[in-house]
Amino acid sequence: MTSAPTDSELVELANTALYEAMERGDQTAMEGLWLDDEYFDVVCVHPGWPVLRGRGEVLRSYALIMASTEYIQFFLTDVDVQVAGDMALVTCTENILSGGPAEEDGALGPLVGQLVVATNVFRRSADGWKVWSHHGSPVLAGSADDGDAEGTDSADGSGPEGPAQPSS
After folding, report:
1. Closest alpha carbon to 112 in 167, 151, 152
2. Top-confidence residue, 67 or 104
3. What would the pLDDT profile of 39-56 be if each residue is shown by its tens digit?
4. Nearest residue to 124 via CA among 38, 7, 12
5. pLDDT band at 129 (very low <50, low <70, confident <90, very high)
6. What separation in angstroms does the CA of 91 have from each of 82, 100, 125, 137?
7. Which helix (H) or strand (E) holds 16?
8. pTM
9. Which residues are CB-neighbours of 150 under 8 A, at least 6 positions away?
10. I need a labelling partner for 50 at 20 to 30 A (CA). Which of 44, 86, 120, 133 fits?
11. Chain-centre distance of CA 7, in angstroms?
12. Residues 61, 44: contact at Cβ < 8 Å?
């Protein structure tokens, strides 16, 4: 006999569904994943963006990103799920591979890799676990040639080009 999934497993499935919807460019799925509650407004911070508040603004941002991204794939690592009652916190590293528009000859456009650490907050609703907040921050790491193991040259976190700046 198979046991029912735990809250942690259900939250992890909801978290995975968020990234899969992005990969597919599925706005309808994205809309179904975010909390729709008159008392709790959703919040989102994409790397390099200001804070977005409100379901409409957050969903528009995903529509814009998905419409302007030819290819995107997420490999999630360091996933940690914590559940407390009707709230859950997921932290993970988004290992992102994305690509620009195809070349004129139809070849795949240039691929770019990026690391983002993310915090996703979920609330339990009548329809299951829904995203309440997403915050993604770029990982600013240089190569071993750039300085110490953290990719910096000085105690203030600046590398060869000066203080670290977030990517957009």
Report:
1. 167
2. 67
3. 999 999 999 999 999 999
4. 7
5. very high
6. 9, 27, 20, 11
7. helix 7-24
8. 0.80
9. 141, 142, 157
10. 86
11. 21
12. yes
C-alpha 84/C-alpha 28 separation (Å) is 28
d(CA 90, CA 26): 22
* Token code pair at residue 114: 């990026």
Looking at residue 104, what is its pLDDT?
A: 78
Six token digits for residue 130: 């829904």
Q: How far apart are CA 15 and CA 121, in angstroms?
A: 9
Residue 118 binned pLDDT confidence (cut-offs 50, 70, 90):
very high
Measured CA to CA in angstroms, residue 75 lies from 23, 56, 116, 117, 130 at distances of 11, 27, 11, 12, 21
d(CA 66, CA 27): 8
CA distance 36 to 13: 19
pLDDT in tens, 68-114: 888 999 999 999 999 999 999 999 999 999 987 677 777 767 888 99
Residue 130 pLDDT greater than 90, yes or no: yes
Q: Whose structure tokens read 């997403």?
A: 134
